Amino acid sequence: MQISIYSSRVGWGPFRFVQSLDSLAFQRITTPSSVWQDLIPFSLRRGRGDGNKGRLCCFPKDPLGDVETWSESVDKVLSCKAGQIAFREFLKSEYSEENILFWIACEEYKKIKTTPEMISSANRIYSEFVQTEAPRQINIDCGTRENITKNISQPSLTSFDSAQKLIYSLMARDCYPRFLKSHVYQGLLRRNDSR
User: What is the C-alpha separation between 38 and 51, in angstroms, rounded?
Assistant: First the structure.
């Protein structure tokens, strides 16, 4: 049995995207079976000596404690960090990870308080996701893309709302039902049930 703990992150500017379940202090045990069936929280390892078995020191509760609720709606998945990470891993396998990265970037963008930071972040989101031939170009209609392009020189906190709604709808309608049937989600459910 080989144990590897991941620690890398990717991102730019004020937006940091978690590359894997590692950032929540998970470990991955690689076996011949599906890797996702072997995801277990780092906090369940013995010998931490903190008396809070099943909890991570930086989380008030186990980050995978809500796994069962993720089947209720895509909002439940997107509302928690562990859900976002698991959904991202699934979307990676479908070559559509840009959808959740864009959605997360938009959520972070809406929290910006200063105009210079808003302008800088809007341009980064635009060049990363919206612009034609962007590295992580999202699948939106040309009218929405043109509207964002026309207004990018004077961005507002709602500049990406229409595109974000389209991407949310795409994830909820197409990706989310497949996620619930995926090895990613089913493996996490099994791990959660076996505790």
Answer: 24
